[in-house]
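Human: I'm a chemist; would you kindly supply sequence and structure tokens for a protein?

Assistant:
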Amino acid sequence: MSAPGRQEDPGRSRDVGGWRRFTTLTKDEELVQRLPGRLRVARLVGELLSPPPILVVLALVVAWDSSPSPAMAVLWGGIAAVFASVLPYALILRGVRRGRLSDTNISLREQRIRFGVVAITSILLGLAVLAAFDAPAEMVALLASVAVGVACGWVVTLWWKISVHAAIAAGAATVLVLVFGPALLVVWPLVALIAWSRVQVGDHTPAQVLAGVALGVAVNATIFPLLG
């Protein structure tokens, strides 16, 4: 029995009805249980609607619209997704496992500066592959827009932690409207939800999120129509 006022470590054994029971809650799980519901939702939004899955879906959707057949859509969309999203995210996971990166969102600005070079290089390689194999102009324009957006965000990050989540989400929403017309304005509430989540979890200020949205819109509204 614990002394009055003493809180037991949830990772240690405790007496329950004469039996010793070991609780398996980790510190992270215990923290999640203590979070307010609103904060848990914000964290979930940040994970599900993070840049990697958004870029994968965007690449496949644009490829489907611009390719002559489903097989070619999978090919071009897959190439774009691998270089713009899958490969950089795999390197992020590797960095987190090895302790070189703080988390999958790369919350520390100094780490974002270092990893940004890797991400830009990967995207440019994908752009070169698409251009070399005569991919549809829309796919080249898409990866060029992503490359320019990430490069601009990297420059800003040298001094200030702009929201990459907001920039990618707003850029994707802009491209979808350009490709499919005003009907795709319906995706913009998701951009607002992502922006809210980044502020709610404390990773960004409202100014950093708004700057990300502005960057995503400006770059993609300029580069994508110019090359596509």
Residues 43-227 form one domain.
